[in-house]
Amino acid sequence: MKSILSVFALFPFVLLAINCQGKTGDYNLYGSYHNSRNALDWAGVYRGGLPGEQCDEGVKALIRLRQDLTFDLQRSCLGNTKSWRGNFLWSDNGGKISLYNHKGDPLGISFLIGENRLFLLEGDGNSITLNHDDIYILHKELQ
């Protein structure tokens, strides 16, 4: 009788192991997959610097990410401001987003989502590294 009860007591853990098989990431006791999309409060307004060919000090940027997967982006350089609106898509692993205009065309801009920060990514998906601190990191405005 004890062996039958032991088997039933282990059953939930066996199901949990089967459910998690083949995935990568952090799991809590109940098998939930944690990533930036579902574990961070990512929606909001971010400000910072982005690369700019004509601006030695870089481009000042503001982006608003919304829960409905839409965004507004403003980039300012030497008094000129350009704006974009569109949608963003999450990567399969829920850690990165890519921006698309209202027609669905890619803008070629991607970010890694961190805790209250957006890290600009190169076209190959790798982080851009510089000698300057935080120039390609946008920081969330906390309310």
Structure description:
The chain is α+β, with helices and mostly antiparallel strands and about 140 residues long. It is built from two helices and ten strands. The chain has helices spanning about 1-20, 35-40; strands at about 25, 35, 45-50, 60-65, 70-75, 80-90, 95-100, 105-115, 115-120, 135-140. The strands form two sheets. The protein has an eight-stranded antiparallel beta barrel. Strands 1-2 form a two-stranded antiparallel sheet. Strand 6 (about 80-90) and strand 7 (about 95-100) form a beta hairpin. The model is unreliable at about 5-25 and about 25-30 (pLDDT under 50).
Output the keywords:
8-stranded antiparallel beta barrel, two-stranded antiparallel sheet, alpha+beta, 143 residues
Topology:
Layout: H1 2-20, E1 26-27, E2 33-34, H2 36-39, E3 44-50, E4 59-65, E5 70-77, E6 80-90, E7 96-101, E8 106-114, E9 117-121, E10 137-140
Antiparallel strand pairs: 1-2, 3-4, 3-10, 4-5, 5-6, 6-7, 7-8, 8-9, 9-10
* Major β-sheet annotation: 8 strands, antiparallel, barrel
Spatial shape: globular
Structural class of the secondary structure composition? alpha+beta
Number of E-type strands? 10
Give the C-alpha Rg. Answer: 21 Å
Q: Beta-strand percentage?
A: 35-45%
Helix content percent band? 10-25%
Write down the oligomeric state.
Answer: single chain
Number of helices: 2
End-to-end CA span: 58 Å
* Average predicted local confidence, pLDDT: 77
Order of strands across the main sheet: 3-4-5-6-7-8-9-10
Q: Name the poorly predicted regions.
A: 5-25, 27-31
H/E element string?
Answer: HEEHEEEEEEEE
